[in-house]
Amino acid sequence: MGYSGAAGSAAGGSAAGGAGGVWGMVFSTAMNLVQQKLQADAQNSAWKDAEEAAENQALLQEEQAKGEAAESLLQSRREISRYRKEAAQRRAATRAEWGGAGLANSGSVALGQAADAVQDRLDADDMRFNAQQQAQGILSRGRAKANATRIGGGADIKKSTLSLGSGIYGPRR
Q1: Phi, psi (5° rounding) for residue 66?
Q2: pTM recorded for the entire structure
């Protein structure tokens, strides 16, 4: 027979008692399942809220890194401009000294001055390259910090196509 409620006997009970007990147990189980589902939904909602908050914080960190990188590049452009201006003034002063002394500005002297001008341009290019590397480092650190925030909040990190590797193209053969 089946489970019988309090009205039923141990030997099987009455039809009404047996049916009430089974339905009571089914109802109780269904209510427990509904309650568990509601709790799981509430927990999922809390996790989604945490993920959303983590994602928003990560986006803010990335934007801050972009701003810092842009500020770094702007400052380096000012420094490069100042360097070029000083280098041009230095070369002009040298040419003026040579001209004031009545010396010819030709031959090896002119080649030396041209070489100085080329070296100044190369130095400015090196400064620009270093500034770009510094800005890229700021962006990379910002991305890493944002991804750490995403991971801490339970969200997925944003990956580049290259970092996904075999996940996209399959394993190597």
Answers
A1: -60, -40
A2: 0.59
As a whole number of Å, the end-to-end CA separation of the chain is 61
- CA angle, corner 72, sides to 66 and 77, nearest 5? 125
Distance CA 150, CA 109 (A): 61
**Domain map of the chain by residue range?**
59-151
CB-CB contact of 46 with 154 (8 Å) = no
Residue type, 85: K
> What are phi and psi for residue 145, nearest 5 degrees?
-65, -40
Place of tokens 């400052």: 75
- Quick check: 146 and 59 in contact, CB under 8 A? yes
What digits encode the pLDDT tens for the residues 67-105? 999 999 999 999 999 999 999 999 999 888 877 776 666
107 φ/ψ sector (left φ>0, alpha ψ -120 to 50, else beta): left
How far from 111 is each of 29, 94, 116, 119, 138, CA to CA, in Å?
95, 13, 9, 12, 40
CA distance 143 to 78: 26
CA distance 31 to 3: 18
